[in-house]
């Protein structure tokens, strides 16, 4: 379970840095677009990812962490393929937003699965390994992205997520155990979420 959950986090955090190194190639491809427009290819993912983490985590507690993890990985993978197929900057930014939503859904669900799996004595160890996978992904993003762009094109920094995402979904369906938060079921406080600390502000 730890390996599967950590792999999901690896996917999400890898994409927070892998696209950076491909930005010059993306800029050359969309040579008629302004830098300000192209910058949203990088910013949209991170902003949406951060903005929806809390609400998505609460949904995972209510609807099931395994279910939301699989939904998140699925959305992330589909959005990655759409990013690779984008013909305009507007399309690419829109699909990066979808990627960010998918990442925001899968990351808190994956962490909750790890926390649920370990008892109090071993929980710090499990969370530490999960965090190490996320940190490793962020560090590997630029070299992997550079290698993919050099070997093929910028589209492969998105297409690389397709086989990884399929593997994650298949293994998660077979290997993860469903869990929910105990206590009364309540919907996320979306009104309060709008005013919580986030890149959007209040």
TrEMBL record:
<dbReference type="Pfam" id="PF07690">
    <property type="entry name" value="MFS_1"/>
</dbReference>
<keyword id="KW-1133">Transmembrane helix</keyword>
<dbReference type="GO" id="GO:0005886">
    <property type="term" value="C:plasma membrane"/>
</dbReference>
<dbReference type="InterPro" id="IPR020846">
    <property type="entry name" value="MFS_dom"/>
</dbReference>
<keyword id="KW-0472">Membrane</keyword>
<protein>
    <submittedName>
        <fullName>Sugar (And other) transporter family protein</fullName>
    </submittedName>
</protein>
<dbReference type="InterPro" id="IPR036259">
    <property type="entry name" value="MFS_trans_sf"/>
</dbReference>
<feature type="transmembrane region" description="Helical">
    <location>
        <begin position="154"/>
        <end position="176"/>
    </location>
</feature>
<dbReference type="InterPro" id="IPR005829">
    <property type="entry name" value="Sugar_transporter_CS"/>
</dbReference>
<feature type="transmembrane region" description="Helical">
    <location>
        <begin position="93"/>
        <end position="115"/>
    </location>
</feature>
<dbReference type="InterPro" id="IPR011701">
    <property type="entry name" value="MFS"/>
</dbReference>
<feature type="transmembrane region" description="Helical">
    <location>
        <begin position="68"/>
        <end position="87"/>
    </location>
</feature>
<feature type="transmembrane region" description="Helical">
    <location>
        <begin position="34"/>
        <end position="56"/>
    </location>
</feature>
<feature type="transmembrane region" description="Helical">
    <location>
        <begin position="127"/>
        <end position="148"/>
    </location>
</feature>
<feature type="domain" description="Major facilitator superfamily (MFS) profile">
    <location>
        <begin position="1"/>
        <end position="202"/>
    </location>
</feature>
<dbReference type="GO" id="GO:0022857">
    <property type="term" value="F:transmembrane transporter activity"/>
</dbReference>
<keyword id="KW-0812">Transmembrane</keyword>
């Amino acid at each position: 379970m730890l390996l599967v959950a950590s792999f999901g986090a690896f996917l999400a955090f890898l994409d927070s840095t892998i696209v950076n190194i491909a930005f010059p190639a993306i800029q050359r491809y969309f040579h008629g677009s302004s830098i300000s427009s192209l910058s949203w290819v990088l910013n949209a993912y991170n902003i949406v990812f951060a903005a929806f983490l809390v609400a998505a985590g609460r949904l995972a507690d209510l609807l099931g962490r395994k279910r939301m993890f699989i939904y998140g990985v699925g959305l992330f993978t589909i959005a990655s393929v759409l990013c690779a197929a984008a013909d305009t900057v507007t399309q690419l930014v829109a699909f990066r937003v979808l990627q960010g939503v998918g990442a925001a859904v899968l990351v808190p669900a994956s962490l909750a699965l790890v926390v649920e799996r370990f008892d109090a004595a071993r929980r710090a160890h499990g969370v530490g390994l999960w965090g190490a996978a996320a940190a490793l992904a962020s560090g590997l993003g630029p070299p992997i992205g550079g290698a993919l762009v050099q070997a093929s094109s910028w589209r492969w920094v998105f297409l690389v997520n397709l086989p990884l995402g399929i593997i994650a979904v298949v293994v998660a369906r077979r290997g993860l155990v469903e869990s929910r938060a105990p206590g009364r079921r309540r919907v996320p406080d979306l009104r309060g979420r709008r005013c919580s600390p986030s890149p959007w502000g209040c």
